[in-house]
User: What shape does this take?
Amino acid sequence: MMVKRISHRDVWVKWLLGPHADRIIDWNSRRMGDDLTIVARRLQTYGGEPVKLPRRLARFGGVIGYCAIKPNVIELLKDGVESPWISLIDYLNGRVNMAVSASFINQLHGGCRMPKETRFTVADRVIIDVDLGEGGLDRVKEVADRVIKASVNALNVEPLILHSGCKGIHIVYFLSDFIEANYLPAVAIGLANVLKFGELGIRPDPQTLTPSHTFRLPYTVNLRCGKVAKFLNSTMDIDFNRHMLPINIAKALALMFNEEKKTTQQVKPQGNRTDACIELAKMRDSGIDVSVLWAVFKCSERESSRICLSNPIIGRVCGPRELLGYGWVKYIVDNGILLPDARHALIWTTLGQVINMGLVARGKAEEWLRMSLGKYPDREGEPIDNYIKELDYYIKYRRGSEVNPPTWRTLVTWVTKNGGEASPAVRHVAVNVIKALWENEVIKVEKPEELKGLVKEDAESFNQTLKTQLKTNNGKET
Assistant: This one.
């Protein structure tokens, strides 16, 4: 069997798209609605003489010198190595320097300059730029090895090390999910503290601690010394998972070290130390040594353990803390916990909101619905596409709404955060979600027999109500 040879063009496509490129399209359309926007990275060209482009690259203008190019993610996903953007990079390589942002751009224009309305939205990686000064390649390799060892010991993650070609290295962590771009400086500082850069005799270049900063594009020529930027601990076929940092750890680092970040506006990430401790507990349970971060985040066994809540009929319900808040929705979608019933009610009460909140991707929600309905078809024979149309309706209907989806506490206790009684629709979702999680051994229920009876009783009463509402309202919420 012939093994495909990885080219520089393959590296550039993969680097520009990142580990979650398909989801950034969904994220953009959800945030920007019907606006005609560009989802791209900032690719900065600089140094060298202005380059006159050949006719085949005429779409990019006649000459490129110092310029902020914006490779379009949709085009890259569609065309891959044959994309005109990759042809442009190939032509410019060795003629100008090229550097690319860790974050994505969301803007209305695609010209060479960066208009004022340009926004650096989310990032899928954290990159720390370290200048090593003199010492040559031996010094570069020595520092790279020590950084990798420190990272594996502290985080159980091996960062990807890119040698700039001259005197510097870029320490790269891909993230398991997107993070707001303006958190990047705090995450970088947090990583530098956890890895004890001071003891390694290095520090992040402070000028690179901004969401808009660009870092050398791998396997392009560094004109300063005429050498190619290369990975030191990876083949050209990048394994994102090998170098991936859990998003809860990244957010907790941003929260812990936010006060030390001086270069951008102060921010508070949507995540906290408890989330990180839960993540660390899971890693520890799988046999990974997390003692360094456990101490950094001051985790306790109580914080990281399972939480129990009481239901008036089925008694105590105990499950992982990651179900708390709206985490239960993300959990059932991400882990393929399928529901045989309550899919309509879940769309009405929950899915539209959590998609608009950015907790679940629209494409992921559709995939989950199709899996659920594929395994457990609608009892009335309603086609799957009707559910998808209903999902899109409620995404739009709930956009900007102040109505929040039910939390895990509400699902279990049937009491809202204001002390009121949960609606019939929420209770219908609750009993089906709890049963599915119990059957998949995610949670423990004190009275499982009562749960089985409750699900049957609820189905008989609620499905009759649902049928009446669908006939009356054509599936729309009253």
About this structure: Confidence is low (pLDDT under 50) at residues 259-271.
